[in-house]
Amino acid sequence: MPYEVQGVVSRAKGEPVSLEPVTVPDPGPGEAVVSVKACGVCHTDLHYREGGINDEFPFLLGHEAAGFVEAVGEGVTDLEPGDYVILNWRAVCGTCRACRRGRPWYCFSTFNAAQPMTLADGTALSPALGVGAFLEKTLVHSGQCTKVDPAAEPAVAGLLGCGVMAGLGAALNTGAVSRGDSVAVIGCGGVGDAAIAGANLADAKTIVAVDTDDRKLAWAKDFGATHTLNSKGLSEDQVVEAIREFTDSFGADVVIDAVGRPETWRQAFYGRDLAGTVVLVGVPTPDMRLDLPLIDFFSRGGSLKSSWYGDCLPSRDFPMLIDLYLQGRLPLDKFVTERIALDGVEQAFGRMHAGDVLRSVVTW
User: Fold this and answer.
1) CA-to-CA distance for 323 and 331, rounded, in angstroms?
2) What is the pLDDT of residues 221-257, one digit of tens each?
3) Cα-flanking dihedrals φ and ψ of residue 37, to 5°?
4) Its domain of life (predicted)?
5) Which range marks the domain in which residue 277 is found?
6) Does 189 share its domain with 231?
7) Which of 10, 167, 246, 322 lies in disulfide reach of 59, CB 3.0 to 4.6 Å?
């Protein structure tokens, strides 16, 4: 029997979100209904509301979620009601060329639920990142459910569903930060601080945090930054020079751009050591362009990488990171700035845009 719940809906570009009745169908083949216990307010949800992803309104927002499996559909054998799960938007197919080559974190054909969730009048909703979790129960593909240790509370665990995983993975997976490395992270919001936490977990020797907000730099130190740089008013060359000063004049082994603008990417490019690695995890807009001398690409060597979802494999990474959190080695709880009710999402967008929070988390 379908579930009738309240969900956070974005009906039109730039308009405030609304709390509306949503019909969640019983799970079909390969699907699961999950009782959501917590869901983080991610910048990607705001991108959806602003039309920055696509124009397939109305959207059902929310995707950084954890909860318990309520019901499963036909053919689902690896989940059962009561399982504690983190939702993900990379339910790998196992058959595309990336999966066949042993690189499932690049899967080109990830699964989502086949059935739509709908408004009261039958209008199909577009779930954010194929999840849609700002509601008490949601319908997803069973592959979007990753079982983890239930000792981790949902408000903390759910953050691995997107932003925190993106930052951790940018350092650990894409950047392959290792013991003794020097790392610089440009942009110290939730994703950037997660990258700092990842570099700290990997035992990097030097971690330079760069931002224009002293509040964010203070947060960065809490996650393991050894040096901070307020770049407000500094030229690109001055930022690069400061990164070099913090890294024995050479530049960092890995520089992670968690902002995604041409000027921050250039800072990352020139702020790395020779043969160093640049990781772009901040999301640029389609109109942004780069203009650099081609000889600089050739003469500096190294790697220029983009990190998609932290190049994570949820079935591998989520349980491992939750275990590290429970061991006290990964401070995931520090990302939770506040817990809010479902009707507080629009106000949380404002606080996020102002830089007042790392994560607001809706809890039930």
Assistant:
1) 11
2) 999 999 999 999 999 999 999 999 999 999 999 999 9
3) -105, -20
4) Bacteria
5) 167-307
6) yes
7) 10
14 and 98 inside one domain? yes
CB 66 within 8 A of CB 140: no
> What is the pTM (predicted TM-score) of this model?
0.95
> How many Å apart are CA 54 and CA 52, to the nearest integer?
6
Q: How far apart are CA 360 and CA 330, in angstroms?
A: 19
Give the span between the Cα atoms of 112 and 30, in whole angstroms: 9
- The answer to whether residues 173 and 291 belong to one domain is yes
Does 319 fall in a domain? no
Can you name the residues that pair with 10 across neighbouring β-strands? 59
The neighbour count for residue 358, using CB atoms within 10 Å, is 26
pLDDT of amino acid 149: 98
Asked if 88 and 220 sit in the same domain, the reply is no
Q: Is 288 part of any domain? A: yes
Q: Give residues with Cβ within 8 angstroms of 185, minimum separation 6.
A: 192, 195, 196, 199, 207, 208, 209, 210, 220, 225, 255, 256, 258
Residue 329 is encoded by which pair of tokens? 């080695």
Centre a 10 Å sphere on the Cβ of residue 79 and count the other Cβ atoms it contains.
20
Three-state SS string over the chain comes to CCEEEEEEEECCCCCCCEEEEEEECCCCCCEEEEEEEEEECCHHHHHHHCCCCCCCCCEECCCEEEEEEEEECCCCCCCCCCCEEEECCCCCCCCCHHHHCCCHHHCCCCCCCCCCCEECCCCECEEHHHCCCCECEEEEEHHHEEECCCCCCHHHHHHHHCHHHHHHHHHHHHCCCCCCCEEEEECCCHHHHHHHHHHHHCCCCEEEEEECCHHHHHHHHHCCCCEEEECCCCCHHHHHHHHHHHCCCCCEEEEEECCCCHHHHHHHHHHEEEEEEEEECCCCCCCCCCCCCHHHHHHHCCEEEECCHHHCCHHHHHHHHHHHHHCCCCCHHHHCCEEECHHHHHHHHHHHHCCCCCCEEEEC
Please report how many Cα atoms fall inside a 13 Å half-sphere around the Cα of residue 287, on the Cβ side.
1
Confidence of residue 285 (pLDDT cuts 50, 70, 90): confident
CB of 361 closer than 8 Å to CB of 155? yes
Which position has the token pair 């003469």?
A: 299
Closest CA to 88 of 252, 308, 360, 306: 308
